Automatic annotation (TrEMBL):
The chain crosses the membrane at residues 326-350. This is Transcription factor domain-containing protein. Keywords: Membrane, Transmembrane, Transmembrane helix. It comes from the Eukaryota.
């Protein structure tokens, strides 16, 4: 879009953008990082608050909003085109980019890409779409020091809490507050993409090689176990901190500081259950002429039921102490497989075992009833 076109578009779009009150701005900076953590990966809170307060919107916002007037849901299409054309997925391969941009500008672009990457791999996992960029073609460094990026740097915002955390973040010891959330999120989406690709293609091969198949399966199981040990269990979700933060600091920056890591930890745990279910369900597929030992099938079924039970327990316990608005999006999608596994379990196992499973289903239905206020997806289970 040239400058002449922009001069026409900008006033039209700007006229429809309302000024935000201090109350709305505060809600924005305290809710967005916890409700939409992936979309907020590139965002710096001092800059966001100052720009929104003064209506200093980026140029691309006007372009997207103007296109939206004549095109339904253009965002995914535009994002994919931009990634391919700009080759941002190889930004750390380009010597020109390193000369053209400062380190902070490069870090911002890396975070833009990884935010897109997570959304793209999510589409791939749940909709069966092909990735915009293959993993082997990506040359982008992983993000570093999430805490400094979120709260540090230059601060023009006249917001007491933002100023306080900006001072803390700019301290040379601020790395102690960083939890590698973005880095681990990228690892989560990468592994999820690999497992999804394996599950989709495992039984569609023209020539089946049992040795290759078993090697791929064992490699993914090993990666999944490592993911559990290094990311899920280290450290587990802190329910006591959730209770304290939600009761004392809700709608404050302190709440964001405490909760952002916990929200991510829940994402990693939910995705772990989802990936495990996805992987072991491939053991139950029956293909003519291909035989799997019955003990492997029994083992896979037991693992699936155990995983489903653990996921439903986590969802139910978390729903008691934290509002669903902070974690509904991940749970709606990843929890559905566990629900289906439990329903299938009830149809084939003895009545005494079904009693416990019925309780699990009721717990999940209770949570999904609450979620129906936010989305229609869970209603299919009710």
């Amino acid at each position: 879009m040239n400058s002449q076109q922009n001069s026409k578009v900008k006033p039209d779009v700007e006229a429809n953008l309302e000024s935000l009150s201090d109350e709305k701005l505060n809600k924005m900076v305290t809710k967005l990082p916890t409700i939409f953590p992936y979309a907020m990966i590139p965002t710096r809170l001092p800059e966001l608050y100052y720009n929104m307060k003064n209506k200093l919107y980026p140029e691309y916002l006007y372009y997207v909003l103007s296109i939206h007037l004549c095109m339904n849901q253009p965002y995914v299409i535009l994002a994919r085109m931009s990634v391919r054309i700009s080759k941002i997925y190889q930004i750390d391969l380009s010597k020109i980019a390193k000369l053209k941009y400062s380190e902070e500008e490069l870090e911002f672009r890396r975070r833009i890409f990884w935010s897109f990457y997570g959304a793209d791999r999510g589409e791939m996992s749940f909709n069966g779409s092909l990735p915009t960029v293959q993993d082997r073609d990506i040359v982008v460094n992983l993000p570093t020091n999430d805490f400094w990026w979120r709260y540090g740097g230059e601060c023009k915002a006249k917001h007491p809490e933002i100023l306080l955390w900006n001072i803390i973040a700019n301290n040379k010891h601020s790395e102690q507050f960083s939890k590698d959330n973005t880095k681990n999120y990228v690892k989560t989406q990468t592994l999820s993409g690999k497992i999804n690709e394996f599950a989709r293609r495992r039984w569609l091969k023209k020539v089946y090689n049992p040795d290759d198949d078993n090697n791929q399966l064992m490699l993914l199981i090993e990666k999944l176990n490592k993911f559990e040990e290094t990311i899920v269990k280290n450290s587990p979700i802190d329910f006591d901190l959730i209770k304290e933060a939600y009761s004392k600091y809700k709608d404050t920056i302190r709440f964001v500081v405490d909760m952002e890591h916990i929200i991510y930890k829940n994402v990693f745990t939910q995705y772990y259950f989802f990936m495990k279910n996805n992987l072991y369900q491939t053991e139950l597929v029956r293909v003519e002429g291909i035989h799997i030992h019955p003990e492997r099938i029994i083992s896979a079924k037991n693992i699936l039921v155990d995983t489903a039970n653990k996921q439903i327990d986590l969802i139910y316990e978390l729903s008691k102490i934290l509002s669903l608005e902070y974690w509904k999006s991940t749970t709606v999608i990843t929890g559905l497989i566990s629900a289906i596994i439990c329903l299938n379990f009830m149809s084939i196992y003895l009545k005494d075992k079904n009693k416990d499973m019925k309780i699990k289903i009721e717990h999940l239905k209770e949570v999904y009833h609450k979620m129906s206020n936010y989305t229609e997806i869970p209603v299919i289970l009710l």
